[in-house]
Known about the structure:
The structure holds two protein chains of two kinds. Chain A is 73% helix and 4% strand. In chain A, 55% of the residues are buried. Chain A has two domains: 134-575, no CATH class; 579-654. The N and C termini of chain A lie far apart (78 Å). The model of chain A has no long low-confidence stretch (mean pLDDT 89). Chain A contains 25 helices and four strands. By secondary structure, chain A is mainly alpha-helical. The radius of gyration of chain A is 30 Å and the shape is globular. By secondary structure, chain B is mainly alpha-helical. Chain B has a domain at 269-495. Chain B has 22 helices and two strands. Chain B has helices at residues 3-18, 25-49, 81-102, 107-126, 130-139, 141-151, 156-185, 200-217, 226-233, 236-261, 263-289, 294-314, 316-323, 326-361, 372-375, 377-390, 397-412, 414-421, 423-439, 446-449, 456-474, 477-491, and strands at 58-66, 71-77. In chain B, β1 and β2 (71-77) form a beta hairpin. In chain B, α8 packs antiparallel against α10 (236-261), α9 packs across α12 (294-314) and α14 (326-361) packs antiparallel against α16 (377-390). The longest helix of chain B has 36 residues, at 326-361. At the A-B interface, β1, α4, α5, β3 and α24 of A face α7, α11, α14, α17 and α18 of B.
Amino acid sequence: MTTLYALSLITVAAPLLASLVTGLFGKSIGTVVSHRIAVTGVGLAFFLSVVLLGIVLQQQISMHEISLYAWAVSGITFEVGFLIDPLTVLMMVVVTFVSLMVHIYTIGYMHDDPGYTRFFSYISLFTFAMLMLVMANNFLQLFFGWEAVGVVSYLLIGFWFKRETAIFANLKAFLVNRVGDLGFLLGIALVFMLFDTLNYQEVFAKLSTTDLKLTVSLWPGMDVSAITLMCILLFVGAMGKSAQIPLHVWLPDSMEGPTPISALIHAATMVTAGVFMVARLSPLFELSDVARSFVVIIGALTALMMGLVGIVQNDIKRVIAYSTLSQLGYMVVAVGVSAYSVGMFHLMTHAFFKALLFLAAGSVIMALHHQQDLRHMGGLKAYLPITCVTAWIGALALCGIPPFSGFYSKDILIEAVHFAAIPGAGFAYYALLAGVFVTALYTFRLIFLTFHGKARWSHQKGHAVHEPGWVVTLPLILLAIPSAVIAWFTVEPMLFAANGYFKQSITIDTAHDVIGQIAYHYPGAFGFALHAVVTKPFWLAVAGIATAYLCYVRFPKVPARLAREFSVVQRVLVNKYGFDEFYQWFFAKGTRNLSLWFWSVVDIRIIDKSLVGGVVHAWGASARLLRHLQSGYLNHYAFAMILGLLGLLSFWLWG
Amino acid sequence: MPSLSLLIWLPIIAGLALFLLQKHPQLARKLALVVALVGVIISFIVYGQYDPQIVGMQLQEKLPWIPYFNIYYAVGIDGIALPLIILTSISTCLVVIASFWAIQKNVASYLAIFLMMNGFICGVFAATDAVLFYVFWEAMLIPMFLLIGIWGGENRIYATLKFFLYTFFGSIVMLLALLYLYWVSDSAQISDFYDLGLTANTQMWLFIAFLLAFAVKIPMFPVHTWLPDAHVEAPTGGSVILAAVMLKIGAYGFLRFSLPITPLAGAQLADLMIVLSLIAVVYIGIVAIMQKDLKKLIAYSSIAHMGFATLGIFMVFPLLEQGQDLATAVLAVEGAMIQLVSHGFISAALFFCVGVLYERMHTRKITDFGGVANVMPVFAGFFMLFSLANVGLPGTSGFVGELFVILSAIKVHFLVALFAGLTLILSPAYTLWMYKRTLFGTVVNKEVEHLTDITCGERLIFAVLAVLVIGLGVWPAPLIDLMHPTVVHLLTPLS
């Protein structure tokens, strides 16, 4: 099918070209032309992604492979190619849609920034890299996209490279991600070792004939299951990119980057790559209960612990960042209990409402002239009506209030965990339930502190606080619509229809098919929304909102008193459980000290001074000795020659 | 056309002629540039003439040199030598271009030295006669000593002495090994050394002799400490050639001598070699982090990256021993070869970057910089690209070799892959931290404030290297196809 070939190639190439043009010639073509090119490139990618989605739906394509070129052949073929299937096109549409919104929004948000064209170049490059990641047909291209989005994220967190905090955060993000990538690359190497190919389809096809009991020796005498090790290592990669405990520390700091990229990269798309990866590799993860248990526990810990930290944050973006961490934990739990489609479903709804929340926060920050502290906001609903309404929609969706999109994805997700029998699922279920309350609390704390109550900011002369232009509000509205209603239309076809949306792109062992169990008594979208009023998550969310209302609108003195009463808890949360301090002390400082010690002791003292210095010393000493040989007297030399000749002769005679 | 001889002798003769042009620096530059460009063209003609499908030496030339002792002037190339020859001529050409603005004193001698070094190094790669190889091997060191000794910095005497001592010991023992092989085989042809049926014990002695020579060149831990000092004292062009080309000669030696001549000893000592390679990757990577001098940092980075080359080469033995897995062993050696070529371009680019800063500020201390990106945005962009390539970003050449080596390593042992993989964390720790302190941040002092961005000439050099680094990153297939049959031919007798 050449149409698919052309369509997918142009989808990827358009943002790349836009990035190259704006990056290389941005200075000469000017800002307006630059953003037009970038928006056109991404707009085209979005349009073609929708066309591809249409084709996939219409022609019932369950899997179509396209190979572009082989970049290396040595033993196995290393290829660049695309895998067009329902999972891929879903991600393509989500990525390009959010990216398009962010591109438009950026025109307003960055309009007076000196790095305007550079910024457009980066976000277009990001879109290209993310598309390469989701469209890959093999592990290495996945890794290419994985690293490329990481680099663009690094460049964008440090976009304002004069800020010390920004360039600290971006290096930290890169290094922590690289820890995950080490796991990921070793996982890929194990795939290569076990299957002798890196193409998804070929690996999956070989699963039935591969000996699943193979072991790998980690340490002499310590053998572990190869499949389990492979899955856990691949998931370590996901832990880096999707910021799961204990590799989560980079994401809150990444808020140093401009807000549009917090929405695009650090909420909607890149950080969900880990979830996508596990769903994409579902045939592998289905083979290892141990690995999936590990996934579930990590996800549940992240979901609850990071949500709790969100309650005590005062920076509006950091609250949303911790919310993202927590929601990523939800998705990870979902894929861990084999509810891959639900994980992807939550990924999609979350992309819309979390991007929306970030962009709304950006709108507030712009209106208040780069004020990000919640303590200096309040009462903004009168000044920023559109931002306020859209933020409310995003918040309700995040809390899972019916019939907003987050309700369907989160409720079904928790239900799926409830049905799951895998070890760790019981713990995860209660962690996620508690997380619902926590989510509602921090979300509406943010909403109330920002838009309601008394204004705690002061008017600056000549700077009226008002809604930014249409380039900012339009993306908010366009993101609010799917945040409100998308799940209503998509929940049944994506999750429960007999011949479901994902088809063969997701593999689930019937032994732990929790979605199948839910589908059995699923009452339809309307019925499900009605049914919510008798479920725990709904009332927990309502309780969370009510608590936020009481604490931050009705009795604003309460939070400070609570913080005093429970100062230990408060301190733990404000210190984010001490992860940062520990890493700073153990890894950052420890490595620097080790480096200095290695260098000064091993390299300089032992090798240079003792060994080489010793040789030089000996050299000098022997030179002084040998000097006696060069006496300058002819008879000495003649004597030496005769001795030498005698030696040679005797060697020939007896040798 | 005797292309290989032309490639060797044209720059040597031109270099000698340049010594006569002391009074005419501009003419010397132009002549040198023409010769260097012709060198690049000839190396590509050789690339065109070479048929990768035919194994064994090609484009051979053989003239009697000392016929009484069976010693010939014999040159030829295979798929291992050719990529390194192309790398040599491109690097030399870039250094000559840079001399147009970077060197003002003794221009003619400076260029003469580089051209001659180019010829000698091509001779090392092309020689198929052991005596000829040894002559070129020693000859190429002389220009480097002169370069550091004359154009070097404050500590140049110490650095030159250290460099000399290390390489001298290595060369002496290699000479003994070569003489022994010559004596046994009654021929100086390197290919005649391959099937001598040497005992394991003899092989062990020979292996160690070669090891001392090659390990110093690469350099491997623990004989690496000459390199950071040599780099610090060498002028930019010297560092470029040293890192881009000279380090590769050690790895080339392992492939040309150690693997085919002493396979039994190699198999016995493979574990040790793998451990030394991993120490290079991990230990040197850690040492690099705290370096205060830009050049020292990149020098340590070079040693760590060359660890991948030696790792790829010596993993061949366990791979062939365990499962007779020839395909993976080939992958490992090709990974090592790609790492050699790729590191040639990346390290050249990084040393040029440091040169750009040094020429403007006359310092290489990281703390003297900060916020350079504010005043040199184009330079910052190129430097970022090359830093990311050094970090092994997929899509740049730095990734391909390391990937191949790690993929093969997991078949040797999980721990080998794990330790090799630590470069994923260590290389950004030293590279990007250095980048951050040098280029990011606010402008720290007056000198930085008055820096001017790179000139057209500098842009040209960086653009060429950027194209090579990215081109080799997204499409290394031509390079792999060039050497694949040779590598298979090299490894087949070992299995």
